[in-house]
Automatic annotation (TrEMBL):
GO BP terms in the entry: microtubule-based movement
Region (Disordered): 22-41, 537-556, 590-657, 711-730
Domain Kinesin motor as annotated: residue spans: 140-464
Organism: Trapa natans
Keyword Cell wall biogenesis/degradation annotated: no
Descriptive protein name: Kinesin-like protein
Entry GO MF terms: ATP binding; microtubule binding; microtubule motor activity
Keyword Transcription regulation: no
Family: Belongs to the TRAFAC class myosin-kinesin ATPase superfamily. Kinesin family. KIN-14 subfamily.
One cellular-component annotation, GO: microtubule
Amino acid sequence: MDDPMIEILSEEFHRICLRSAKKGSEPSSTGCEQVDGSTDLDGMNCEANEVQEFSPGQGQVLPILEKVIDLSTTVEELKRQHSILSGEMSGLTTNLFAGTGVINALQHLSEDHERLRLKFLEVSSERKKLYNEVVELKGNIRVFCRCRPLNKDEIGNGLGSVIEFDPSQDHDLQVNCSDSSKKLFKFDRVFKPEDNQEAVFAQTKPVVVSVLDGYNVCIFAYGQTGTGKTFTMEGTEGNRGVNYRTLEELFRIAEDRRGIMKYELSVSILEVYNEKIKDLLVDSSDEPPKKLEIKQAAEGTQEVPGLVEVRVSSTAEVWEILRSGSRARSVGSTSANELSSRSHCLLRVTVKGENLLDGHKTRSHLWMVDLAGSERVGRIDVEGERLKESQFINKSLSALGDVISSLASKTTHIPYRNSKLTHMLQSSLGGDCKTLMLVQVSPSAADLGETLCSLNFASRVRGIENGPARKQADVSELFKYKQMVEKLKQEEKETRKLQDNLQSLQLRLGAREHAFKSLQEKVRDLEQQLAEERKMRLKQESRALTGPSVQSSLPAMKQAPLKSILEKKPPLGPSKMRLPLRRITNIVPSSSPYAAQDAPPTHTFRASSSSSYNKENLPKQSTKSFLRQPRRISIAARPPPGPPTSGTATKQPVQPRRRVSIATLRPEPSMHAASTPLHMQSSVRDTRPARYSRLFSPMPGYTTPIAARSSSSKFMGSPNNNAQPGSWKPRHPTVIALQRKSLVWSPLKLRGMMMNNNVRRCY
Ligand SMILES: Nc1ncnc2c1ncn2[C@@H]1O[C@H](COP(=O)(O)OP(=O)(O)OP(=O)(O)O)[C@@H](O)[C@H]1O
């Protein structure tokens, strides 16, 4: 039993029962007492029945029983309430699960919200970018032309319109000049006299609303006096102009973007009159006007400290402010316009924007300028103060023209500071800023000159940006790129050439390395061969020396020193200790089978002291000359023709071998022609001075191998066979170079060559 109330009641009932039992009745007979002695609500029911049973028996209901009955009813009621509450409780528990679903849904929603917010930010920045691009494509400096209708006076004077419009063209207008020629002008947009303020603003709107995206914008109306500049910019009550419509549009867009962007718009109106700045929102009737100056702010923008800035939040207040500013403007009467604006009127709208989604803040300016009349001084009859005004107006307008021209032609210096007007507009002219020029013209034939002036000026501004000047800028860029391309091409060409050169050099190097290797191998082979041959010769010599014939033929006194020398000498071998060739050749016996068979006498070299030479066969002069030869006369010398005589050893002592050299390889004139590479070499080194002169002089009677093949040598610079000694002059550049360069001859090389050509034949 959960309920404590029921428990209390149950106890109470139990007590009553017990008391009744004591009064004479047997409570056990009622059967209400349970075996385990416990009581419950059933027991109560039982009690109630018992009470009812008692009641009739006793004739009246006891107050206690009444109480019990009441209590039972209460219990019943409580039980019912309990079950209801339990039901509610379980219902609440079930609802708790439904709450989780709600939380999940909420979570999903917040995630969606975040995703959409980011997407929106992305899309809005993309829109901003694209919008700006569209404006830029149309031109950051745009020029519109508006022609006012002929006024009553002009019509009354019978003046006709000199301007013609092509109904199908929105960009052209044609001026009929006084000499009946026609001049065509093209602008970004041309408004005919019948075009209303709405039409003009429809085209202006895309430029002005850029201010809400954080861009600085400047619109100005230019033209001669009375052409409708003020009408276009300010308008009238019923025909509101660009100023009011722009602010109206800005408010509309700001309202559209509410919740995403927060904008604050404030307005200032000032005029530049005779190069002085005047705040048109200050009531200067009581006090003299404050002097305002242009100052450069820290962030580089131009500010006018002290200039009134009125916060505007609705179009209703804007109109009033614009009217009051207009009223304060300096006007004067000229012959062209009764209420001519003698100053430049500038309306500045400052827009502070805050992106509520990402907190990004912007501050930009929109300038809407109604310029003073651009007519030349002589055009209107002015004098005194009016003349001075006109001069200031002209000066500042020409400064504006210079600034726009410089901006359009993208020159580095923009002359902003030449006038107060341009200085003030500095941060809203050029760079990322959007500029719109509205050139106002009169259709009247009387204004033709001024109309042409205004149209020419406007065309120049537009033409420089979108026409030839812009093209010129592009051409210069193109030219720069073309030059770069040319340079690159040339560099590529040179690189290719260098690569080719490198490749050929590498090939040549490879070929040289290969040749060098093969030469090295050849030298090694030759050395080996030489060593073997020496070994063999030594064997033969020793055999010859020990042989009886040699012993008998040589006198004992002469054999002894020779023998001793031989014994002292180490055997020839591949080692560094090689015997000099001369020594070996000196002792080669005439009976040597090599000498007799292999080597023809004309080609076999024998040293001058060799015993194997037959002295008789040698011409006297030759022998003498041989004897006169310095010791460096070596193996390369050609022996005179005739068979060598065995056993006739000369008395010339055996000279220790020195450097083998071809330096003494100079055959005697009587020698027969011999063609060896050495001779060839010596023959081409004719003109060398001093000791080389003789060495390289051409050898008369000698024929180079090439020369031997053909009677007239094809080798460039080779000596002519028939040429007189010393008459040959080298012509080949290599020969000339060699003549100039002293050569160092390697004994090893020489030995190899000698062995190849001559020495082998000695055997
Ligand atoms: N497009 C137009 N439609 C109807 N009326 C026009 C139009 N343009 C100008 N006007 C009228 O021509 C007159 C001269 O215009 P406005 O004063 O605007 O010229 P302005 O160029 O501002 O002259 P100033 O330089 O002397 O101030 C005004 O009465 C104006 O209402």
